[in-house]
């Protein structure tokens, strides 16, 4: 099952301090805005999201329809089809936002150790 581009979304206490830290490790701002309390940073194929005050835990994130450069893919498994495949495997889902037959949508699953996994399609 192809889930799309992978990143980790980090819950940070101070976005500017975290930005500086990751820049010192070679990451560069790839998206987001400090005034919106989040940044997406990239180092090679590694993507991290820094989010201040948006959620309680770090989150594993997959973006169907995108490659690691956030370029749209011509062919991909739509989030609604992924949702069905995951439900067919009897995996519990939370925070479903899957309106319409195509376009943006998302849902969350929780791994056996309590780590949230966000499946978040933007296109």
Short summary:
The chain has helices spanning 15-24, 79-88, and strands at residues 5-12, 28-33, 38-43, 46-52, 59-63, 93-97, 105-110, 116-121. The model has no long low-confidence stretch (mean pLDDT 95).
What does this structure look like?
The structure is a single chain. The chain has a single domain, classed as 2,3-Dihydroxybiphenyl 1,2-Dioxygenase, domain 1, CATH 3.10.180. A hairpin with a 4-residue loop joins strand 2 and strand 3. The protein is an alpha+beta fold and 123 residues long. It has an eight-stranded mixed sheet with strand order 2-3-4-1-5-8-7-6, with helices on one face. The chain starts with a strand and ends with a strand. The chain is built from two helices and eight strands; from the N terminus they run E-H-E-E-E-E-H-E-E-E.
Strand and helix layout:
Blueprint: E1 5-12, H1 15-24, E2 28-33, E3 38-43, E4 46-52, E5 59-63, H2 79-88, E6 93-97, E7 105-110, E8 116-121
Parallel strand pairs: 1-4, 5-8
Antiparallel strand pairs: 1-5, 2-3, 3-4, 6-7, 7-8
